[in-house]
Amino acid sequence: MNPLEIFRVSWEAIIRNKVRSILTMLGIIIGVAAVIMVVAFSAGTEATIKENITGLGSNLIFVTANFNRIGPGGFTAGAAAASSGLVFDDATAIADSVTGVDAVVVEQGATETVKAGETALDSISILGTTPGFPTVRDMKISRGRYLNQSDVDRKLKVAVLGYTLAEQLFPDADPIGQVISVGSVKMTVVGVLARKGTVGEVDYDSRLYTPITVIFTHFTDSRFARIAGDRVRLVYVKVNDTKNMDSIILQIKLLLAKRHKTTLENLDVTITTQQDVISAQESTTAAFRSLLAWVAAVSLLVGGIGIMNIMLVSVTERTREIGIRQAVGATPADILLQFLTEALLLSVSGGILGMASGFIGAWLFSAFSSTRTVVLPSSILLAVGSAALVGVFFGFYPASKASQLDPIEALRYE
Amino acid sequence: MSARAIVETSEISKIYGVGDIRVAALEGVTLRIHAGEFIAIMGPSGSGKSTLMYILGCLATPSAGTYVLDGEDVSHLSRQELAFIRSRKIGFVFQSYNLLARTTALRNVTLPLLYNRSLEWNAQARDEKARALLELVGLGDRLNHQPHELSGGQQQRVAIARALINDPVMVIADEPTGNLDSHSGDEIMHILQDLHHRGTTVVMVTHNPRVAREATREIHLEDGHVANVVRNGIHEEHEGSSEARQE
User: Cβ of A329 and B87 within 8 Å?
Assistant: First the structure.
């Protein structure tokens, strides 16, 4: 029997039992649609995350202290606590003595209640920074100006508001020049940042930015600082060329080891790069994806068992037909091929229908939510290919059962 | 007899089961059927006539003995080789027609050609030949009717057309009139007679003596043996049957 005839006969058998065929395909349809949608969803999310992270500014090195505050006033040291952790002077030293550095920015935070007239907002994150901050975090100013070096040097009590914070404090008025109270400190608003959104877990738009020196003076326990220096939680180092990344990291490590009077092994700071953050994020999405791949595999497996089940029923129902075909000259191989083709057609049709519903689903999902979906061509191949594989694998047993029927018994079958 | 031998069996037996439950459906049947003969195989149920028909039709192989069909020893062929033989040399007509449901008369008739490897048939040639055969059995106007739209007699005529499409060396008819009223049955017998007169070898299995009388030779089976042979209404001593009786 030529392939075209086998195809036609199998297709007619499927069409003959439309409802049953569709129901049989359902498992495959759901499985494939799930694969397409899930891959589209995770690819979309991944792309968004990547853009956001890159949006944090490129060529960045993050230097963080190994201290974790545990409970009120408690410290645990990640290294021998011979030194005091990361201080403001460390940042200055990096800027002065490490070559290939474009900008060094420090950050230290506090949480305070912010008041403007009658409006009071609790638990606002106050970030003490230096003028380079918008550069390293890739932020734009929308009104007024950002902090400048003279603000920092003169410890001026000025504030730059995040976009949403400005809207909340001054829904109607122009915030520039207004005086707000941050905790017990009065500050003058000099600028408002453009909308940035939430990156990682930090909402850049609801924060208040003030000179780092103001934080040191008014929002930290200064007794400690008098002995050891002003503690900062994070130092951003922007390098001029990513090629120099490794050598700059080494220079920073050596410098800080010397300053903190410790060895490289016992260094009490952690140095990460933008690439580390991206890699961490990628490994998270990869784990997520492999989990979903297992879910899809299980649903395809269930779909395959459904196909095997219905093909076994079909072989039994059509025993007489098999007998007739054998009597007029069909070989066992002819019968095997016919039923295998039928199983394959069922699963591939299911795969195609599932692909279509997956596309529609992914499209609807992105149309009615803010989540982006990206349909990858490879996922189409994967989904339909695995559907076909399932068809052949689970169709083989029923087909071989059909081909081994004895023609005489098959002809007598009622 | 100068005509070519289509069927030559020598002492064929068919044993079902093993050990204590062995049952011999056929025991030492020796037959010779010549081209152009119209044979009726007769016998009560359990006489082995169905088993003999399946072996002659290459749906089964004998447990012992040899069967030469059209000059080819088919006694020990594999299932696939038997299928090739059926496809080229045998046409079947069954008591219950055995047409494919929801398939037109034309498609039913062309079915054997789909499995025929000796000739590469294109769709048009297949349809033309099937049309000619359906016209021959008087169904030229029913080409696209499905079995459920046809009477029993018409369905059996479609089956006869299907049996003829691969130009078989022998048509095997199993109780071809068994499911039909006498009028339709007569029509079918008329067609078989017609085929016989055109030179087709026909082997018919029946238990109806009236139908069997249409044949040129009746082979009577009993308990797996050939009991006697009647040629053109005249009883004839059979080489195997006399021995069987002497035991």
Answer: yes
In angstroms, the Cα distances linking A24 to A5, A30, A387, B238 are 23, 11, 13, 59
Instruction: Note the pLDDT tens digit of each residue in B207-236.
Output: 889 999 999 999 999 999 999 898 876 777
Report the distance separating Cα A22 and Cα A350, nearest Å. Answer: 8
The confidence score (pLDDT) of residue A68 equals 43
Residues 57-76 of B with CB under 8 A from A: 57, 59-60
Number of structural domains found in chain B: 1
Q: Which residues of B touch A324 (CB under 8 A)?
A: 98-100, 111
Select the residue from A11, A328, A411 to test the B interface by mutation, using most B Cβ atoms within 10 A. A328
Q: Is A71's pLDDT higher than 80?
A: no
Pairwise CB contact (< 8 Å): B86 & A5: no
Domain boundaries, chain A: 3-53+279-412, 67-267
Residue A76: is its pLDDT beyond 60? no
Tell me the ipTM for this assembly: 0.93
Determine the Cα–Cα distance for residues B106 and B122; give it in Å rounded to an integer.
14
Q: Which position has the token pair 């029993």?
A: B152
Give the separation between CA B29 and CA B33, rounded to whole angstroms.
Answer: 13
CB A160 within 8 A of CB A190: yes
The reply to whether B88 touches chain A by the CB within 8 Å rule is: yes
Structure-token pair, residue B174: 């199993």
In chain B, which among 25-54 make CB contacts under 8 A with chain A? 54
Judging contacts by C-beta atoms under 8 Å, the chain B residues touching residue A331 are: 79-80, 83-84, 115
Residues contacting A15, CB < 8 A, separation 6+: A21
Does the distance separating the beta carbons of B59 and A407 come in below 8 Å? yes
CB spacing of B59 vs A408 below 8 angstroms: yes
Measured CA to CA, the distance from residue A356 to residue A363 in angstroms comes to 11
CB atoms closer than 10 angstroms to residue A348: 20
Q: Is B107 on the interface with A (CB under 8 A)?
A: no
The CATH code of the domain that includes B220 is 3.40.50.300
The arithmetic mean of pLDDT across residues A30-42, rounded, is 84
- pLDDT one-digit tens code per residue, A263-322: 888 888 888 887 787 777 778 777 877 887 788 788 888 889 999 999 999 999 999 999
Taking residues A154-165, report their average pLDDT. Answer: 91
Decide: A223 and A179 in contact? Cβ < 8 Å: no
Q: Determine which helix (DSSP H) or strand (DSSP E) holds A275, and give its type and residue range.
A: helix A274-317
Instruction: Give the residue among A237, A241, A302 at the shortest CA–CA distance from A93.
Output: A237
Say if pTM beats, i.e. exceeds, 0.80: no
- Is B247's pLDDT higher than 60? no
For chain A, say whether B77 makes contact (Cβ under 8 Å).
no
Let me know: does A412 contact A326? Beta carbons within 8 Å: no
Residue B183: how many CB atoms within 10 A of its CB?
8
Among B151, B170, B155, B153, CA closest to B100:
B155
Could you tell me the two tokens for B241? Answer: 């049957």
